[in-house]
Amino acid sequence: MNISTDPWVWIAAILTLAVFSFLYRENPFYRFAEHLFVGIANGYAITFYWHRILVPYLFNPVSHGQKLYLIPIAIVGMLYFTRFIPKISWLVRFPIAIALGYGAGANIPRSIDANIIQQLKATIITRASFADWQQGIWAVIILIGVICTISYFFFSTERKGIIKPVSYVGIVFIMVGFGASFGYTVMARISLFIGRLQFLLGDWLGLIK
Amino acid sequence: MTAPDAVRNGFWDRLQRIDRRWIYAVIWLVVMVPLILPFNIKPTAMPPVSRLFSHIDTMPEEKALVISIDYTPDTQAELHPMTIALLRHAFVTGRRVGMLATSVYGLGLGEEALRQVAAEFNEKAATHEDSVINGEDYVFWGWSTPFVTVMLGMGERITNVFPVDYYGVATESLPITSRIKNYSDIGILMSVAGSSVPLSWVAYAQTQFDVRIGCGATAVSAADYYTYLNSGQFTGMLAGMRGAAEYEQLLADKLATAGSKLTLRRKATEAMSSQTTAHIAIIVFIVFGNIGYFVTRRRKS
């Protein structure tokens, strides 16, 4: 056993244990750690934006008479703060509208291509899909899964006739998907716990190398 | 004791009402004991991992590996070993590395990974050529906002998006800049992410500039990303800590085959024995919980 002498490791270890204490019950140690985390995260982000973005990219060039076109842009950005002045709070719509317009314009065409067209292409079975027999079987299963799952979410008609068995098969695919997601979620949560224990047992207590 | 009381206090009934803190205690034990007394597990690489490894291993030498740190400290345990393993692989194969972060909270993690891996290689380096040097072999561009502009702007010229690197040095002055100008110089862009950022890289960088995208994802997101793997939009994927362990194993096999004496700590592989025992414990919980549910329901009916 080789306990750490680094005060920062001790602070991190004590805060980790404070957060884990919530597993027993809600308590002041947990709440202290939670509030400290929120405060530090916000403080870090604000100072970072100030020192690494606003000062070098806005204040420094403008104060030297360069990139003066940034001034009206900064003024539009500052309109976000009009939310705090009820009489002129409507001005906040300008920066929001610009951000929404830019975001939607940049995103919509590319999302349609990446998330719909390319995904649809991947479900189309061609002769190339059967170049390898295993790959061919998976391609057929994926196609059946897509059709059946979509039919389950087809609410424009009553679920009877051919739609009924097809949508039931869709439920099976959906359940398999939920099962896979749950399994992965368990793995993820255990991994995070392992990470903390590696820190506590290794970096802090020196029980593991 | 009356008959209904006996029914309510049977083994299965008590199991249904067990205090959740006992379950936490069991999970603590089954995770902690194998960390202290580990048993040997050799991860076998799944196709998404081996495909990614082989792409990085065989891509043209002049092409760079770019790693986007799209995660924050809350998912460090799962994703940081991936970043470390990718950096080691790039440096072992002599690939140039570019790194950026799409979140301010990821900056420290990226810097720490670069510092750690560069030190591992530089400790063993005998000559200047063997060393891994900032600005020549790798560059940490840092963070810029908004990420849509970053993803689109990198397709034109990376120095336009990152005029200075993380350390405040003008990127135009770095020797590596002449070799990594935009996406056309990038062999693969790895998005190591605890969120849906890899899908944005696909939408903005791949759709428009045709750059190859790889994904290092938390296990929670992995199930959603398999469709992108199937469509070929992701060249490969590392799913959670297990994906990192598989990649570490492939790299260790490569080093062993090459007769390298480089011994590197494999944090994800070390965690696999705990992961295994925890999964067994949870499977046992689920089986017992379901048996208990059906037994008590039959008794009630």
Summarize the structure in words.
- The complex is a heterodimer of chains A (209) and B (301).
- Chain A has 209 residues and is mostly helical.
- Chain A is extended, with a radius of gyration of 28 Å.
- Chain A has helices at 7-20, 28-63, 70-78, 93-123, 133-152, 163-204.
- Chain A folds into three domains: 1-68; 83-123; 127-209.
- Chain B has 301 residues and is of the alpha/beta class.
- Chain B has two domains: 3-37 and 275-300; 47-268, Rossmann fold, CATH 3.40.50.
- Chain B has a six-stranded parallel β-sheet, with helices on both faces.
- In chain B, helix 3 packs antiparallel against helix 13, helix 5 (76-92) packs parallel to helix 6 and helix 5 runs parallel beside helix 11 (240-257).
- The mean pLDDT of chain B is 93.
- Chains A and B meet through helix 2, helix 4 and helix 6 of A and helix 3, helix 5, helix 9, helix 10 and helix 11 of B.
Helix content of chain A: over 70%
Low-confidence stretches of chain B: none
What share of the residues of chain B lie within helices? 40-55%
Q: Helices and strands of chain A: which structural class? A: mainly alpha
Number of helices of chain A: 6
Task: Identify the most extensive interface between protein chains.
Answer: A-B, 44 and 50 residues
Low confidence ranges of chain A: none
